[in-house]
Specification:
Blueprint lengths: L28 H10 L6 H10 L2 H12 L3 E5 L5 E6 L2 H12 L13 H15 L4 H13 L4 H11 L19 E4 L15 E8 L2 E14 L5 E8 L2 E8 L10 E6 L10 E14 L5 H35 L3 E2 L2 E2 L4 H29 L4 H32 L2 H4 L8 H13 L4 H13 L8 H10 L6 H18 L8 H20 L2 H11 L16 H11 L3
Parallel strand pairs: 3-6
Antiparallel strand pairs: 1-2, 4-5, 5-9, 6-7, 7-9, 8-9, 10-11
Helix pairs in contact: 1-9, 2-5, 3-4, 5-8, 5-9, 6-8, 8-9, 8-10, 8-12, 9-10, 9-16, 9-18, 10-12, 10-13, 10-14, 10-16, 13-16, 14-16, 15-16, 16-17
The protein binds flavin-adenine dinucleotide (FAD).
Flavin-adenine dinucleotide binds next to strand 3, strand 5, helix 12 and helix 13.
Length: 561
Amino acid sequence: MTLPRRDSTHEVFNQSTPLTGHNVYGGDAALRDALAFNLPGADEAPRAAFGALLGSEAMQTHARLANIHKPELHTHDRFGHRVDTVEFHPSYHALMHAAVEHGLHGTPWALGPGAHIERAAGFLMFTQLEPSMLCPISMTYAVTPALRGNPKVFGDWFAKLSSTRYDGRLLPLADKPGVTMGMGMTEKQGGSDVRANTTRAEFGEETAWGRCYRLVGHKWFFSAPMCDAFLVLAQTNAGLSCFFLPRVLPDGSRNAIRIQRLKDKLGNHANASAEVEFDDALAWLVGDEGRGVPQILEMGTLTRLDCALGTAGLMRAAVAIALHHTSQRKAFGKLLVEQPLMQNVLADLALESEAAIALAIRLARAIDKQHDPFEALMRRVLTPVAKFWICKRGSALAQEAMECLGGNGYVEEHGEGGMARIYREMPLNSIWEGAGNIMALDLLRALRKRDDKNADVLQALDAELASARGANAAFDRFERALFARFADAADGGGDEAGARRLARDVALAVQGSLLRRHAPDFVFDAFCASRLGAEGPQVFGTLPGGSHSAFDPIIRRAMPA
Ligand SMILES: Cc1cc2nc3c(=O)[nH]c(=O)nc-3n(C[C@H](O)[C@H](O)[C@H](O)COP(=O)(O)OP(=O)(O)OC[C@H]3O[C@@H](n4cnc5c(N)ncnc54)[C@H](O)[C@@H]3O)c2cc1C
């Protein structure tokens, strides 16, 4: 007689399936509506094809493998020569290949109107697959326009920064079909306050790329160190200046960039973040000597956009997983998604996710319309506001979405599951490229410094919000109170200690006005009722009203396809 096998004695049931094989574009009504509003008439077919690729099991496997096989640093070869290379799992390169092929790095700078909005949508969708390897993609997007500060370098490098061919090898520029770039500002003694940088740049000689300097110093955070080149800050006699620092020099030799070690990070595991020393590394001036901060800030605007887009993408991914799970898991005799209190949580998460997408894509439009004066003002205000508020909400949302999965949300199996990875990644977009306080203070600066460039910031904001006026009493009250506070901030009186409140409230007002314009009324009304009342945004799951009919349309709208 054969005994029954021990593992056949029980059946696994009431567990949800993985969210895979879905279309991250087709299943995202909030993104589709935001794009239809900001880029009307565009062809959706390429987005839908990309969305299917990003939701595929094959790409999810690449994302998982690139995270569990972290990059490894090789400082020397076995003969003792310095090599300073980082080795990545093949899945990392597969992801990079897909991102570059779809033009998420420097490509929009070579295209016409609308390209930055399309790219923003692609970036937001790609984040849902894997956010950390997007770091060099984002930096390449951001440095490309700043590189115009050295027209000769720009002339030689632009075609390959915008090329859609990825090549991860470390080779001279001439031998590569496409390149990536990173940036180095943060030093041990200061990241927010880069004026504290101590890296020195000594002028060497005039060359075909202009003024060449020798850099001696360090960078404490230097992400994606296998990029082909970097923009870095260093001190000259004229002050902090911006430099182009290639890894391979024009004569084919390696530049003296020594990778000391890789950071052991909370998340962001597929991406390498290094500490480096410059040992007489050769670098070329970009922009004017002593004008490094404004030069680098040109880049900062774009990486901050990506922090907002990336967080909105991670939020969407977390909400999609939570909805998928709760539609399959039962407790106390009903599906979780049918339990009234869970419905309140899910609807509230979906509102937050939609508001984040709306604001991030709106900011992308401001960046797309580079030469439109109104959009320039919106870019100035919305960059710090979107980076601050979306990133702040991201971590809270990830925690709540994780809780929707109960214990399974907290657990990974060889990197499978997704929720834990999202949760680890969330705080990063808030910290880098200007942490929360820096963003809030930047908003105060935009409101105070009303010179020729910024004179009409308040008028622009007024025009932006106008279309939602009169549609909801809570919105109208909120907006009136906000403008009363602006007068204070714009006169220089807005106190620093209250800057986060101001940044939050500008974000909420703009989110409300956007939802009025391109979301269904039930989304706009629920957003105003829960975020623009006297209490402000609360813990998730506290939407006023308790009826199934109030929550159900919001949940159905957000359900992944
Ligand atoms: C994984 C990772 C990768 C990174 N990659 C790069 C990279 O590739 N290149 C690069 O240059 N940097 C990189 N960074 C660095 C990052 O940009 C900095 O950590 C960030 O700018 C903050 O600087 P800091 O760490 O020196 O903190 P600090 O500047 O010391 O700030 C600490 C805190 O103080 C707050 N603060 C600062 N000034 C004020 C003020 N006046 N009022 C109120 N609050 C204030 C900040 O908001 C922050 O919360 C990376 C960081 C991480 C975590």
